[in-house]
Amino acid sequence: MSQRGNRSTVEYEETKRDEHKEGETVQSRTDSGSGSSSKDESYLLDDETVLVDTRPTWWGWTGYLALAGMFVGLGLLLSLVEVAVGLLTLVPGVLLVGYVWYQRTYQRYLVTDRRIIVSTGMTTRTTNETWVEDVSGLQTKTTSFSRSRGYGTITVSHTVTPSGFSLGGDLQLQGVPNYADVAQTIRRRQSERKGR
Question: Which residues cross the membrane (predicted)?
Fold first, then answer.
């Protein structure tokens, strides 16, 4: 009977902005308070250690939420004149909020000591993953708005062509809170795995 090893995680929260010095190890905590559940067991290997367990930040959907707010506000104003028209105007706003909630709640980014995993879906679960030692390139992208709020996009590539990143072999983590720390964690693990 195999025994599960220690799984430790670091959750990168939107409100928490820890500054880590170069070479400093990120503190980890055990499964009991990490938000990991037994349904995660299906895509974790025996004695695999989870280093990052996070979801996309709410800030990534600012545009959608602003548009939803405009529909809701307009719907409330129109409901003062004509209730049916006001309620019809509320529907797109409510649908947008539901879409954003679903996308954020049912999308998860895991970085383990061996793999990078993107898990999506509620009833149908889809996972995309790559082995850390197979990563040939890592790219981070952020705007001034997202940088000021501490989130960005991390793209890891399996293959690098002479013209740059290949289009088909990329794994993208969008709206990652504390993206610089997450990217640095991937770089350190990649260095350790490839340095063997």
Answer: 58-77, 83-102
d(Cα 188, Cα 182) in Å, to the nearest integer? 10
Residue 64 backbone dihedrals phi, psi, to 5 degrees: -60, -45
Chain centroid offset of residue 81 CA: 42
Which two three-digit tokens encode residue 191? 């260095």
Radius of gyration of the chain (CA): 20
158 pLDDT more than 80: no
Q: Contact, 187 vs 73, CB < 8 A? A: no
Four-residue CA torsion sign, 50, 151, 98, 121: negative
Domain match, 42 and 125 both = yes
Give me the CATH number covering residue 15: 2.30.29.30
Is pTM, for the whole model, over 0.85? no
